[in-house]
Specification:
single chain, alpha/beta, binds magnesium ion
C-alpha cells in the first residue's frame, strides 16, 4: 500500500477567553492547545488542531505535546495511524489534517444554540440573544443552589417565546435527589433536554432517571470518546449524545458510528479555535451528522477574528468554514 510521507510540525497556542467561562467544573479563563502542520511530499500543506479537555477525560496538553514531539519531523501514515485510541484529541487533529475537504452544499444551514451563563446572568443576556434571532438556548445549571436556580428557570421560561427551545446543562453536578427534583419540575415544562444530570460514571442514576421521567436526557461528560458512547448504547441509553468532535477522534469514525447506530447527536464545542471548528462544521454538513442545534453558540470566545472565525449567529451555514484561513492561524504562532 502506498504510504504518504510528511513533514510534521507542531506549535502551541495560549488564548485568554474574552470572558471566563463559569461551569460546574469551575472557572475557565485560558484555552491552551496545539496546532499541527503536515506537509506532504507533493507539497500540499494541511493543518489540524489539538484542543484537550482533561476534565472531560481526554489526554492533557502535556501528554498531547509529548505525543506530537515523539513524531519525527519526517513521519508517515503508519506512524500517524499508530497513535493510540486514548489520544482522542491528537487523533482528531491528525485525521483532520489528512482528510480531503468534502464538497458541501453551501446553502445548508444548522441552528446554533446560544449559551446562557449560570445564574441570574442568563436573564440579562437573553434579550440580546432573542433580538439576534436565536432559536435555541442552553443554560448552565448546577452552579448555584438548586432552589435559586429552579426559581430562575421559570423566570427564564417566562421570557422565552414559544418558538424557542431551552436545554439545561448540569455538568454532572446534581446528586440523585436534586436531579429528581429538577426532572419532576421539567416534566411539565418545554425543555428540549437536560445534559448530564448526574455524575458521568453514575450509570445507575442516569439510566434510572431516563426511565423514571419523561424529560429527554443527554450524556456529555459521560461520552467523551466513541468507545464510551458505544458502551452506553449497549447499556440501553436511548437519549441524546452530546459529542465534542474535537475530543472524539477522527471525524469519519464519528460519522460511521452515528450512521450505524442512528444515535441522536448534538455537536458541541470544546472551545477549540476556528480552525478545529471549521473542520467539524464542514464535516457535519457533508455527512448530515445532526438535525439538532449545534453547541457552537459561544459567541466571541477569544475576542479576535483570527481565532474565533466570523461571528456565528443563530444559524451557521456550510460556507462558514471556507472563511477560516489555517495558514494565517499557523503563521500567527511562534
Ligand atoms: Mg455539557
Amino acid at each position: 500500500m502506498f504510504r504518504m510521507v510528511y513533514r510534521f510540525a507542531v506549535k502551541t497556542y495560549r488564548l485568554p477567553l474574552r470572558s471566563p467561562l463559569r461551569t460546574a467544573h469551575g472557572v475557565w479563563a485560558v484555552r491552551e492547545g496545539l496546532i499541527i502542520r503536515l506537509e506532504a511530499e507533493t507539497g500540499a500543506v494541511s493543518y489540524g488542531e489539538i484542543a484537550p479537555l482533561p476534565q472531560f477525560g481526554t489526554e492533557t496538553l502535556a501528554e498531547a505535546l509529548e505525543r506530537c514531539l515523539g513524531l519525527s519531523d519526517k513521519t508517515d501514515d503508519a506512524a500517524l495511524d499508530a497513535v493510540p485510541a486514548q489520544f482522542g484529541c491528537v487523533r482528531f487533529a491528525l485525521a483532520m489534517a489528512r482528510a480531503a475537504n468534502p464538497s458541501v452544499d453551501k446553502e445548508k444551514r444548522l441552528p446554533v444554540t446560544a449559551l446562557l451563563p449560570a445564574g441570574k446572568a442568563a436573564l440579562a443576556m437573553l434579550p440580546g440573544k432573542l433580538e439576534q434571532g436565536f432559536l435555541s438556548f442552553k443554560w448552565k445549571v448546577g452552579v448555584n443552589r438548586p432552589e435559586e436556580e429552579l426559581g430562575l428557570l421559570d423566570d427564564l421560561l417566562g421570557r422565552l417565546p414559544a418558538y424557542t427551545r431551552l436545554r439545561l446543562d448540569a455538568n454532572g453536578a446534581w446528586d440523585r435527589r436534586t436531579a429528581e427534583k429538577w426532572l419532576a419540575r421539567c416534566a411539565e415544562r418545554p425543555i428540549e433536554f437536560i445534559e448530564q444530570p448526574a455524575a458521568p460514571d453514575d450509570g445507575d442514576t442516569l439510566l434510572g432517571l431516563a426511565e423514571d421521567y419523561p424529560v429527554t436526557l443527554a450524556l456529555d461528560e459521560s461520552v467523551t470518546g466513541l468507545a464510551a458512547a458505544r458502551e452506553w448504547q449497549g447499556r440501553g441509553w436511548r437519549g441524546v449524545f452530546v459529542i465534542k468532535p474535537a475530543l472524539a477522534g477522527p471525524l469519519d469514525e464519528l460519522a460511521a458510528w452515528a450512521k450505524a447506530s442512528q444515535a441522536d447527536l448534538v455537536l458541541s464545542s470544546a472551545i477549540e479555535t476556528a480552525l478545529g471548528r471549521a473542520a467539524i462544521l464542514r464535516f457535519a454538513f457533508a455527512h448530515d451528522l445532526t438535525k439538532r442545534a449545534v453547541g457552537f453558540g459561544v459567541g466571541e470566545i477569544f475576542g479576535e477574528r483570527l481565532w474565533d472565525g466570523q461571528i456565528i449567529g443563530p444559524l451557521v451555514d456550510a460556507g462558514w468554514s471556507a472563511a477560516v484561513d489555517a495558514e494565517e492561524i499557523w503563521n500567527a504562532l511562534n
